[in-house]
Amino acid sequence: MHESAVPDIMTAKLVASELELGQPVVARPVAYEGPTIHELVAARPAMEKDNWPLLRNWDWSGRHFREAARLTELNHISLRWCRREDGPDRYKVYRDAEPLLWTRSRVWAVLCAYALAGLSPFEEEGTDGVICSGDSIHLPLPLARVIALSGPELPGPVEGRLSYRYVFRTHRIRQNILAALGFAPPPPAIRHAEVQQLNELLHRRGGLQQFVPEALRRQLVDLGGCSETQVGGLVSQSALPGLYAFARALVERKRN
Predict the structure, then answer these.
(1) Which of 71, 181, 188, 215 is at a distance of 20 to 30 A from 116, taking alpha carbons?
(2) pTM summary value
(3) In this structure, are residues 35 and 106 in contact, taking their beta carbons and an 8 Å threshold?
């Protein structure tokens, strides 16, 4: 099985023809369509108080669990690590010292605490990367595995830092996943009339034809919601000014 990242489906078909390979198949990008952390928390029944002894508190300033945390509550949210000899550890999230939820998963508990506190535990790197720094601050394992299989490089430690890096295939995939989890605003939505305008520009015929310039193609994919194949083919040169204006409008909307 051959796998390759190419700028558009036309290039893939040309390469496949010259190398006498089978017809290329487009791999769909990873996307998360599940509930946000806020929705999951809201759907859980109220946590009842129990007698599990406190082991450590989450230290918001140090970003890890410790016995004598310097900052145990942030934006009314606190996180406790509880342990008892007759069962697995429990991680409990509180708001104003009132219990909200508990889970066996340390990573999930940390992500819930950050989401409820209105903060993102992730540092965005470049246009398509995410850096995690701190104890148990990672993407959920099933999601991380999908990213490892579909991304341009494997997740791994950051050289020279006590951090971990995930790299997504595109900027839009990264923003969609962070937004779905509740840690980023969703990409700007385009209106129905704008979709029609974009389709008219992309399918305009007549005159000289050329491939969409890479920088413009990237903006249309990341901000306009276009698929790689939709903007990967030939377009009329007369449509390029309109496509550039369309992309500039999306960039301005994102800034505002």
Answers:
(1) 188
(2) 0.64
(3) no
